[in-house]
Amino acid sequence: MTLKLGTIGTNWITKMFVEAAQMTQEYELSAVYSRTVEKGQAFADELASSATVFTDLDEFLNSGIQVVYIASPNKLHFKQAQAAIKADVNVIVEKSAFDNPQQYEVIYSLLQMHPSVRLFEGARHLYQPNFMVIEDQIKQMEHISGATLVFEKYSSRFDDYLAGKQPNVLTREFSAGALADLGVYPLYAAIKLFGLPNNQYYFATKLTNGADGRGTAILRYDNFDVTLLFGKGANSYEHSEILGRRDTIVIDNIAELGKVTYLDGQGQERVISTPAPTNPMVQEAQKFADIINHPAESRPEYEAMLLLSQQVNLVLTKLRQSAGITFPSDPHTN
Q1: DSSP H helix total and E strand total for the chain
Q2: Domain Gfo/Idh/MocA-like oxidoreductase N-terminal: where (predicted)?
Q3: Cβ 73 vs Cβ 149: under 8 Å
Q4: Where are the domains of the chain?
């Protein structure tokens, strides 16, 4: 069944997802929600001229769409996802999905009241073949000594911050910052590969507005630590590594997963990855469509994905709290 797709947000990542969805031939862009008709129409004209543009959220959600892709500022995800679930529309929400476990609990309870609705968090790297290669290789390693996962990339909005402006992606008011944006990639990878940590600590480099511009997070497991390095105010070309004893997995970029190499520690190394897809969102778009179209057969996999998303949300919140970073929606700030 071709799914009628609606989008919230008209930025580059929304365009990438729509193009990926169209490549799967599982979706048809049917509706675009935007604050202005002009911006929404320009987006629709580029990707699907037949799509209808809406500036009213309720009208948009009741226009016949079956799935909505939400890529608005983080602080808007919660209310927009709530509205979509109440309208019995499946939800794909970009990371980080929600601000804290309290918001996630509300969403989870709402999902129980609308059992036909599926909610996904867009962790695109987890669905790429090269991530599965990493998972398979870890299973073959006799011991894990630790890992360092890196994703530090200069933000296109950091110049605005340096000029004295307050871009959404770098403010606590919009539930944003380095951890909530780029840090989600290595954190998702760590929890998918190693499970929930016993403890977590975040050492943040804060901006003048109190948001985190970069930072180091440490996840403590029974017999090893995982270090996450991420930021939005500089470019890092450091590889990520997963350490065995003598053997090591080297990853060029934990978010993009272009090349993965296994070194056995005996002088042999081999590339175990395949070429990365041109559009890194195709695999996740296909996976989401499969689950929506086959709800009964896919329920165990879907429930595992939803649990992982909740776990990431929990650890994200604990990391923020350990660094003294609060969002307006956090319970103790209300």
Answers
A1: 11, 14
A2: 4-111
A3: no
A4: 3-124, 125-281+314-333
Print pLDDT tens along the chain (334 aa): 899 999 999 999 999 999 999 999 999 999 999 999 999 999 999 999 899 999 999 999 999 999 999 999 999 999 999 999 999 999 999 999 999 999 999 999 999 999 999 999 999 999 999 999 999 999 999 999 999 999 999 999 999 999 999 999 999 999 999 999 999 999 999 999 999 999 999 999 999 999 999 999 999 999 999 999 999 999 999 999 999 999 999 999 999 999 999 999 999 999 999 999 999 999 999 999 999 999 999 999 999 999 999 999 999 999 999 999 999 999 974 4
Give the number of residues written for the chain.
334
Under 8 Å CB-to-CB from 185, ≥6 apart: which residues? 123, 125, 151, 230, 254, 255
